[in-house]
# Entry
Amino acid sequence: MRLILKAATFDAAGTLFHLKEPVGATYARFGRECGLNLGESELDSGFRAAWKSAPALHSPTETEVTRDPEQAEIQWWRDLVDETFRHAGMTDPLPVPLFPALFEHYSEPCAWELFPETLESLDRLVSRFPLAVISNFDRRYHRIALGLGLSEYFQHVILSAEIGAAKPSGTIFRVASRALGCDPDAILHVGDDPANDWEGAAAAGFQVFRLQRPRLTLKDLCQSLD
# Structure
């Protein structure tokens, strides 16, 4: 692949880093600490069902009508956790300490892990052109990225939580293009999600690298650009 590029953008979770353990395992462990006894597989399935049916977290209308979007974001996650446990068979209200403990856990870098080739690949790319993050992650990204050693690589971080628009909307890609000072067709977007990353970036005029582990990794990206 020979591309004329002036910048590259990256998705975050699923592209640069991932959870250290399945959601169900974490929810089950924190649940046990609060006196609950629900299985990991039930909670995994419950999370998938809750995620699928949840409304969009970051939309332009939300930030227009919400005076405190950060609190709206926390409430969105609280509702998702409630729905996850409900789908897993929980009928009573959740113990009060459970959600704050889970929310804090996922803000910690120790809950996440870099893919093996992430830093090596970023080292190779950062000397070639500016890099940025385009992610539907919430505000906890900054703390996680700092702890994982990612912050130094990216000139710009464009989060749906902070601009009120989420992938695959063209708005978030246009914000990134303006921040980088590049035309969209001179930017390569790297991500793993077919709708949010591949289709969204392509519709915005970006070039796209379709990350598909284990077949196509960040190492393959670097090799394709040599």
In short: The chain has a mean pLDDT of 94.
